Amino acid sequence: MAEAIQLLVVTVLLRPYAFLFLAFYLTAASVAIGWRRTALLTGLAWVVASLAEYSSTRTGIPFGVYSYISDTKGRELWISNVPFMDALSLAFLAYVSFTLAQWLRLPVGASEREVTAVRRSWPILVLTAFVFMLIDTAIELVALRGDHWFLGEIYEYPEPGFFFSVPLTNFFGWAITGFVTIASFQQIDRGLAAEPTLDQGVTDPVWRHALLPDPGLLTS
User: Which residues cross the membrane (predicted)?
Assistant: First the structure.
């Protein structure tokens, strides 16, 4: 236990950018959707992503076959053969995708009833999965070439894929992971009561709605 805690601390020092994004996400999401929903989404995203990563590195499902480079084992926290921070980072991306999907679907001045119905709807679920996949197209271009950046080499594919050396199965895997995460969140969200959040106007800039959305868009 003490070793795991020590590795977690070292992980924060080794990957400060990931935990800065995580801190920003937790703050923004807690303000917008409340701490219970934030904790729920974070936990669901981490579990789903961890299972998907664990499966893919062994069977190729759902992301395709790949492996993490183990240079940082012993220098950061790993869960089996997957870095802890990798699956955790998907929580932030799931939240951004989910929020952006709602922003694209909801009219300005939507009523609370409309907002709740849209947030829990199938179109939002499908759109979120699609946005989640699109975000990954940009991430892969940077992450796969981490040795050219401060990221360092993180993972590798046994064979170069179609999209800038990334196999198309990876993007299908992201869509599936996003779909399962948000579908699970929507199902549990239906049973949660509303939480008090800070009041914001619907005329705020687009970037604020994507990362720190109007509470009226996300709380019932």
Answer: 6-26, 77-101, 122-142, 162-185
Q: What is the pTM of this model?
A: 0.82
56-104: pLDDT as tens digits: 999 999 999 999 888 878 888 889 999 888 888 899 999 999 999 999 9
Most confident of 26-35, 120-129, 154-163: 120-129
CA torsion, ordered 11, 14, 16, 18, to nearest 10 deg = -60
Please check whether residue 96 is in contact with residue 210, taking contact to mean a CB–CB distance below 8 angstroms.
yes
Tokens of 166: 């990334």
Q: Return the structure tokens found at 7.
A: 């590795």
By three-state DSSP, how is residue 191 classified?
coil
CA pair distance 16, 37, nearest whole angstrom: 25
Q: Could you tell me the two tokens for 66?
A: 């790949």
Contact (CB, 8 A) for 98 and 135:
no
